[in-house]
Write a structure and sequence with these properties.
Layout lengths: L6 H11 L4 H16 L7 E3 L4 E3 L2 H15 L4 H7 L24 H9 L7 E10 L5 E9 L23 E6 L5 E6 L2 E9 L1 H9 L2
Helix pairs in contact: 1-2, 2-3, 3-6, 5-6
């Protein structure tokens, strides 16, 4: 059965795992409150007259990764963008079994499942920030990647290849209402930052508490 954690529990355990002090714990607690306010964490339950939010292992794992993203200097827009990737299916070439009825399993579930085992490679959460070289608009892409995972195919945005390579202009076609193909131009983009978050290393201490 999952453990349940308050925000205070999460801040305390994370601070201990990085050898932090009381000031760092207060800062992490504030960051977690901000993440919760942005609805990037979902309480599993509530407790007490003040209805303190409680979080299971899955939400606690999200919290740890998100604190690491904040500490890497990324902003709220990036946090919101990467929240779309918790439930993306893992690369089927890894051959992982179904988890919670999903096949291929959801990425975060696979990370949690593997984190309790010492005989499997570790996972990282890779974030790429790309900028439209004409408008300056940012696009954030991310993926959970296991150390033994094959190189992603070029149709995957995280690959950085083919249409997703830097300085490549792309024309995408879609069918219009009249059945004709409508072409849209996507301006070249440039990768301005790549951040690798050690997901397994962050989550494993949580599961061993």
């Amino acid at each position: 059965m999952d453990s349940l954690y308050t925000l205070t529990d999460l801040a305390e355990s994370f601070t201990q795992s990085i050898g932090g002090d009381a000031e760092q714990q207060k800062r992490i607690h504030r960051q977690l409150r901000n993440v919760l306010t942005q609805r990037l964490l979902t309480p599993t339950d509530t407790r007490g007259g003040r209805r303190d939010a409680l979080f299971n292992n899955r939400e606690a794992a999200k919290a740890r990764i998100q604190i690491a993203i904040i500490d890497a200097g990324l902003d709220a827009v990036t946090l919101q963008a990467v929240s779309d990737y918790w439930d993306r299916a893992v690369d089927p070439r890894l051959g992982l079994p179904p988890i919670n009825g999903n096949f291929p399993p959801y990425a975060l579930d696979a990370v949690l499942s593997d984190a309790v085992r010492a005989d499997v490679p570790e996972w990282a959460f890779v974030i790429k920030v790309r900028r439209d070289i004409e408008t300056g608009e940012r696009k954030v892409i991310a993926a959970f990647v296991r150390a033994d995972q094959p190189e992603p195919p070029e149709h995957e945005p995280i690959s950085g290849k083919g249409p997703h390579a830097d300085n490549v202009e792309v024309h995408e076609g879609r069918f219009g209402d009249n059945g004709d193909v409508v072409w849209a131009r996507i301006a070249p983009r440039l990768t301005i930052a790549t951040i690798t978050i050690p997901a397994t290393a962050l989550i494993r201490p949580l599961l061993s508490e």
